# Entry
Amino acid sequence: MEAQIVVDVPTMQTNQPYTYHVAERFETVIEPGMRVIVPFGRGNRQVQGFVIRLMDDDSHQHELKDITDLVDLDAVLTDELLILADWLAKRNFAFSISILQAMLPNVMRAKYHKTMQVVDRKRVMAEPDLLTIFNDFDEVDEEQVSLSKEQLTGIHKLLKQGALKIGYQVQNRARAKRVLAVKPLKTPKELAQLRQILRPNARQQACLLTYLMQAKDEFVPQHLVVEQTGVSQATFKAAQAHGWIDRQMMEEYRLPKLTTPIETTRPLVLNQQQQAAYDQLSGTLGTTTSDTFLLEGITGSGKTEIYLQVMAKAIEQGQTAMMLVPEITLTPQMVRRVKGRFGQTVAVLHSGLSDGERYDEWRRVKRGEAKVVVGARSAVFAPLTNIGVIIIDEEHDASYKQEDNPRYHARDVARWRADWHHATLILGSATPSLESRARAQKGIYQLLQLTERALTSSLPSVSIVDMRTTIKNGGDDLFSPELLAGIQERLTKQEQSVLMLNRRGYANYLNCQACGYKPTCVNCDLVLTLHAAQHELVCHYCGYHIPVPPVCPNCGAPRLRPFGTGTEKAEERLQALFPDARILRMDFDTTRKKGAVDKLLTTFGKGQADILLGTQMIAKGLDFPAVTLVGVLNADTSLALPDFRAAERTFQLLAQVAGRAGRADKPGQVIIQTFNPDHYAIQYAKHHDYEGFYQQEMQLRHTWQYSPFFFTIQLKIGHEKQAEAAKIAYQLADWLKPYLGPQTVMLGPSAGSVARLKNKYYFRIVIKYRDGKTLLPALSELMQTGQELQRQHATLTIDRDPMTFV
DNA sequence: AGCACGCCGACT
DNA sequence: GTCGGCGTGCTC
# Structure
């Protein structure tokens, strides 16, 4: 028997299955989807691999190596996931092994240990420098010892002579937690009798017997029994000696702890719109087709309740359900909401879990003990079977795209898995991505709209403050008089304010403080990025660049300034302006620690602070009834991003915060400060007008040939030397030209926005295309011929449908 | 990635 | 004449 194995060597040249011989003793056990250890390369170094196929034909040309060992007793990947991995690797120009690893919890990735093993002790002991290392050991972990120069030469010599050799060990870090468990061996009746005849002073034994009388006939972790009864270790030992109980080791899940118990919730009554959406969605469950819906519902329209009820329906029909949310929305409140409805059958997968917890949650899914999975991006690979519905909430969110290897978009994966399972896919958002909305327009997705708020409070009024005027009048460039007045009013009335500092695109473009003009690219209609070091303005999209102009090209005033401010500085200024206000700052720095977000939000939710000042993370999913003012300090920084999605991102962000104020009985107010009060993204956000924005943005995308009318691919070439990187980039561009096909545009090569990253210079090529018939295979080939690039010490990344252009 | 093979420069 | 530097090719 032979097995095709994908080995854990993530390079372009080894991105293919290798055939190994399966020893007879493994034949009955081995299955596709298992992890194995195989010898690889000339030195037969042991590496982890995945079995992707088994076969019987022995028509191999070469002598095959044997699989060393099986890591798993059960396949960790299903056939579905193996096929998906193959598709995803090809589609996204990723290494198969990287995708396979990404599908599993972190701990299941092998760790490798390099050891030095003594072969000829006599000769090793003859080296005085090495005595301290090998005196007591025959094998030493290379990482555990730091070697001096003399020792290094000594080891080198011995390796050459064969007196020492290098060993490789594959370590599987995935460990189930095992605890001592107990089970009664006697019937309740017998136990009751035993209790009768017990010495009266044997209090602990009596206590244990009472517990056992009402215990089920199954193993229960001993520590849980201790918690309930308070009996000691010795008592269990005695009970075992008496033959009352059986004790053995048992697996126990590391369940993430929750501070307070979860209250079970019942389905809420749906309003008419919600009910109509629910009927349509649930009607497609369990059918033999896969339907995709775009659920477009304004903030507060009750999308989550619909999700919960559709998932409940799927469970009812014996199917499973998956719900994806952006990482930062996966707050304890959200988890609580889902667990409140589905209880123990929910598995939660997100980055806040420890490795052990994550592994255990994953196993609960794998074993079919969890029927509902809630998680962030990577949860899309959860090993659910018989999926009835997949939900992607806030489907427009950029965090669904993994931006480093392996690159994938959870939406694509969800689409694929929904197809496989004939499941219903629901994309939900108040501000859908243009791609999804356009598909709904074309009828590829079914569009469901929710236009009413579930808890009939009206949308807040949004006012826009023109910061050009503020500055002209000698005002502060961070806090306009209007905003300051608003904050003061809230402080007086003891209501809360949320202030958002839009940090995207921070401090790297020029802005004329006289007229608000920002230098833009002639080819792309994108804002030029300031490269202060080179004293240049550069378009990150097509490479267009000009020297920094001394005066504003629009109005001639010498008032072009670099733009941007940090949250820390804003907090300082704010505190100086309102010395008595209690301010909470929420940004990357203050939320780095585990649980910090929860703590901050709880503090604010309890009303222990007046102002919450933060980056866009405060825009998502937060719901504080006492907040009546939301201020956006700098709405336009994200407009200036060198990215064709800049307007879309800005609109989505503003629409989201605009829906946050005054959700309870008190009316809300939103103040947006901007240098571009007339920009359509800001205007449409002001009027809560998604449709208007969609129409206008689609027109622009059409004109400029961007997504969703054109697909995009970004190639990045990195090299230690700038000239080399450029040379290779141009060579690649030339090589690709014949494959471009009709209606395909290649932009660049252009220099990366950060000239040097990790000591490498980057160049980028962006290709816009409609038909990838010749282009995509050419790019696959480029992956394979990457050998040549590697020789030149260059790196190449291919990013399909990139979300950022930095 | 990591290892062997191989072809040129500074040594015993 | 050899040790060892790194550039090159290959891993079932």
User: Anything to note?
Assistant: The longest helix of chain A spans residues 690-704. DSSP finds 26 helices and 35 strands in chain A. The mean pLDDT of chain A is 86. Residues 271 and 643 of chain A are 39 Å apart (CA to CA).
